[in-house]
Amino acid sequence: MIVAGLANERALVEPRKATDSSKGTGIQDIVHSRRMEFTRMNVPPQVLVIDDDRDMRWALRTILESIGFTVAEANAGPAGLEIAARGQPAAVLLDMKIPGLGGHEVLTHLRARHPALPIIVITGYGTIQGAVSTIRAGAFDYMIKPFDNDEVISTVRRAIAQHRPGSDQANGSLKETITEMMGCGTAIQNLVTQIEAVVNTDYSVVVGGETGTGKEIVAQALHRYGPRKAQPFVVLDCGTVSEALVASELFGHERGAYTDAHERRRGRLEVAASGGTMFMDEIGNLCGAGQRALLRALEERVIYRIGGTTPIPLDTRLIAATNEILVDDDEAGAFRPDLFYRLSEFIIVAPPLRQRPEDIEFLARRFLRQTQRVHETSAREYTTDALDLLHSYSWPGNVRQLRNVVRRVSLMAPSEITAAHIKECMPQRSNRAAGTGSYRPVASSTPLRNLVEHRVQQLERGAILDALTHAGGNKTMAARRLGINYKTFRLKLKAIEQTASVGPGNVGL
Fold first, then answer.
1. What global pTM score does this model have?
2. End-to-end Cα, the chain, rounded Å
3. What is the pLDDT of residues 261-312, one digit of tens each?
4. Of residues 313 and 440, which shows the higher confidence score?
5. Which residues have CB under 8 Å from 82's CB, separation 6+?
6. pLDDT for 202-249, tens place per residue?
7. What burial letters (b/e) apply to 350-366, b meaning 16+ CB within 10 Å?
8. Cβ neighbours of residue 140 under 8 Å, at least 6 residues apart?
9. In whole angstroms, what is the distance from residue 236 CA to residue 134 CA?
10. How far is CA 385 from the centre of its chain?
């Protein structure tokens, strides 16, 4: 476990300021260029530590330098951003509870300016919701204090192994970036065409598509290649924000605005308000109060912190993602139509994986290479029967499910991945139709009531999943097929997904 360091003065370590290349000429330029190239080749990776706790910085520096890394330190957010801009670190360790420019804001700025830079978040308050929210905001990983030395070393090594020097810059074209990440089949070519049509505008965009199809990749491309690329890309996962906190998350609050408001906090919209992009993932989960407040802010183009009276101009591009039909004439109240029409100045649909089977092999090989690089696994290739099995599956969880299967099988297989290896990692639900679901024997001591409830849940699960499959992933149509209202269907499907996510045989539903 990390312990407090010595209390003596320790100066912050900052990279030296770059020299002005315009001062050199001729041979001096060549010599300087060769010398800098040689230096870059031989200098170990640098890790930037942003933490206001001097002892914690010292402890982390001691650990990282003991295994050969160099360390730069910053005791506040602005200093950390400046060092990151000048020094090009290979990874960042960021404390979320730094004063002034807070950890969430620093994370947002780093992600906007250095998209490929892995950021490891450090916090003393660990919750599942906090971890998910931080990862969705762009962090590479999440460490909770107190942590031991091995955890720090392992996490930083994984982060640096994934980082590609110089990849922060959008050197490739938009098309190259999308095809490199998603494939180059006809459906993806059509997706690129949609993105290119709107990328250089300020239109609000709704990105639709099933779970796991790459909606966030589309949103990031719209920001990274658009006119706002130099400003923050702010992410809010609407599914993780409770109704009680939605106003504070969106607009922030002043100190003393309510009981637990011990300090001023900027909301997500304010962080993006000065020319940035606001990405609201799974916006269909935004509560009614949040929808009303967001609509008003978009119409007036001004926001106020909770408890504040100072108007904050809102100059932001809004991108929303959803995996459902937000507005249906037959289902009143599911989502505000006026907000949907305000958001949907342009609509992009990310295609499901089953509609682009030509990309499956490309993606499977890409995920395998990623796992090899990060985890140093031994699996190197797929057999023909393994690729045939990957192509034959319908992938209801889309690309995310394929990635999870590849990541799991790469840990279990030797140098060559066969169909048998893949079958061990695939979800077992071939007999899921209503009335034909598999029945697992239970102990004879189980009460009859529990047996009946278990059987009913199995039948209900099969019926819901079959209806969703026949409706092509359209939740509204699936609910209609089953004769239940949309809200009930959503709640039941969410319960099924939560159960599947913890089961040993399911990956990425």
1. 0.61
2. 36
3. 888 889 999 989 999 999 999 999 899 999 999 999 999 999 999 999 999 9
4. 313
5. 74
6. 999 999 999 999 999 999 999 999 999 888 888 898 888 888 889 999
7. bbbbeebbebbebbbeb
8. 91, 118, 119, 120, 158, 159, 162
9. 10
10. 32
Tokens of 162: 């994934």
Q: What residues contact residue 322 under an 8 Å CB cut-off, 6+ apart? A: 206, 207, 208, 282, 283, 284
Residue reference for tokens 């993780």 = 240
Nearest C-alpha neighbor of 47 from the set 83, 82, 5, 16: 83
* Collapsed DSSP state (helix, strand, coil) of residue 252: strand
Quick one: which of 137, 110, 134, 108 has its CA closest to 122?
A: 134
Q: How far is Cα 362 from Cα 366, in angstroms, rounded to an integer? A: 6
Find out whether 509 and 427 touch, Cβ atoms under 8 Å: yes
Query: Which SS3 state, helix, strand or coil, does residue 49 take?
Result: strand
Query: Would you call 403 exposed, middle or buried from its count of C-beta atoms within 10 A (0-12, 13-18, 19+)?
Result: buried
DSSP 43: S
| Cβ density class 422-431: b for 16+ within 10 Å, e for less | beebbbebee
Alpha carbon distances (Å) from 347 to 180, 321, 378? 23, 10, 42
SS (H, E, C) 326-372: CCCCCCCCCCCHHHHHHHCCEEEECCCHHHCHHHHHHHHHHHHHHHH
Handedness of CA 279, 285, 289, 291 (dihedral sign): positive
The one-character DSSP state at 284 is G
Alpha helices by DSSP H, listed for 225-359, are 246-251, 268-272, 288-300, 337-343
Look up tokens 């109240």; give the residue: 333
CA angle (180 as vertex; 178, 183 as ends), nearest 5:
80
Query: Which run of H or E residues covers position 192?
Result: helix 186-198
The encoded tokens of residue 375 equal: 């985890």
